[in-house]
Design goal:
Elements: H1 2-32, H2 41-53, H3 56-65, H4 70-82, H5 84-93, H6 106-123, H7 126-150, H8 167-181
Helix pairs in contact: 1-2, 1-7, 2-7, 4-5, 6-7, 7-8
Amino acid sequence: MFFEFALIDIMKKKIIDQITATVVFLFILTLLRFKLDLSLVPLWFGGFLGAVILESDYLFQVFLVQPDLPLSKDTMREIREFGVIRGVKMVFERTEEIKNLTFHTIFFQIIFYLFAFFITTSSGSVLGEGLVMSALLNLLVLQIGEFREFGKLDSGWFYRLNIDQSVEKQKIYVAVMAILFV
């Protein structure tokens, strides 16, 4: 019982950290644009979409990539018996059971940086800019949060990559990603 409440508190803290980072980032971008009008609505919408889209990774894993997980089977049963909302809630209450996420990896982050560079430099889509920049910011927030809480990144970040995972190299990696973000 205590574990359930602690997990829900961790998820709430994680989401609050992500939304706070997104709001601060979008506020700074709004100030830097020196205008406050409706043309910024797509930027803010994209920013919030970028913050939420990373969390869809858990659903992606449960419903498509890892359907043989006990959590996947429990979730499908929960959806059949009680509806989609209860099933999704179950997934987010039991995220620690999902290993090898797709969006929460170094490989995805590097590819997404390249994609974000393309979106921000050539697309002209304010919605797209908000989405990719917010998603990248939230990946950094997650990584920094793991360093604060555990002193290192979880090995899931290095899924399918045969590279040195020493804490020192992890710190350098996160620092480089932070510099590239700015």
